[in-house]
Amino acid sequence: EIRLSLVGSEMCIRDRDKICGLLLSYNLAWRLQAQPEFVGVHPSNRSKFGVAGAESHSHGSDILRAGFSWRRASEATAIEASPNDAEALEFNTRLAALSGGLIPDLVLMKLLSVGGSHTNVFLRAVKARCVTPVERLKDDTGRLNLEKLSVGSPEFQEAVDKGLKWLVIHRQAHRAWPKLLPCIGGKGRPI
Fold first, then answer.
1. Can you tell me the distance from the alpha carbon of 141 to that of 138, in angstroms, rounded to the nearest whole number?
2. pLDDT tens digits, the chain, 191 residues: what are they?
3. Contact 90, 84 (CB under 8 A)
4. Where are the alpha helices (DSSP H) in 26-145?
5. d(Cα 157, Cα 178) in Å, to the nearest integer?
6. What is the four-CA torsion angle of 90, 168, 20, 27, rounded to 10 degrees?
């Protein structure tokens, strides 16, 4: 069924929902809340460019302006990280190193995001009290400050503390179905 859903499809939202439903029904995917510092960016994300720190902070500013919403964050999607995945670890280390202090290093890599990456990177940055180029987000020291940013938003506070609620796909699924990642990724559906 999953193979048929992926063959020759233009990968619209309807296809994504159907495929994710099938993966869940066959226990090839599950739901999990994971702390932001345990979720890296999948090396194939955004055509292998990943995410940029300034973009993530700007995206975070937009989220805070509109108000954090668990419903809007419900499409956060990740692949279970393989143990000792040197490529993914190097990719995420490079993203942090090139960010000028806007993206903190991972504490532990359990998941690799394919949808919701900018949101998760922003949550990591808030939790780590990173510097920010976005004026409206700065505290007196030029850093992200959870206490300041979460005023009136216990949902945002929870997202920073406990993480997004991810749809996690088994680490072998995208190897079995190479067209899976473009279908389930968040491109065009930012959260």
1. 7
2. 555 455 544 545 567 788 888 899 999 999 999 999 999 999 987 656 679 999 999 999 999 999 999 999 998 999 999 988 999 999 999 999 999 999 999 999 999 999 999 999 999 999 999 999 999 999 999 999 999 999 999 999 999 999 999 999 999 987 888 778 777 765 444 33
3. no
4. 45-48, 53-66, 86-98, 117-127
5. 36
6. 120
Handedness of CA 84, 190, 123, 143 (dihedral sign): positive
Give pTM, 2 decimals: 0.89
Which residues fall within 8 angstroms of residue 163, CB to CB, at 6 or more apart? 33, 34, 35, 36, 38, 39, 120, 123
DSSP 3-state assignment of 176? Answer: helix
Q: How many residues does the chain have?
A: 191
Per the CB < 8 A criterion, the answer to whether 181 and 41 are in contact is no
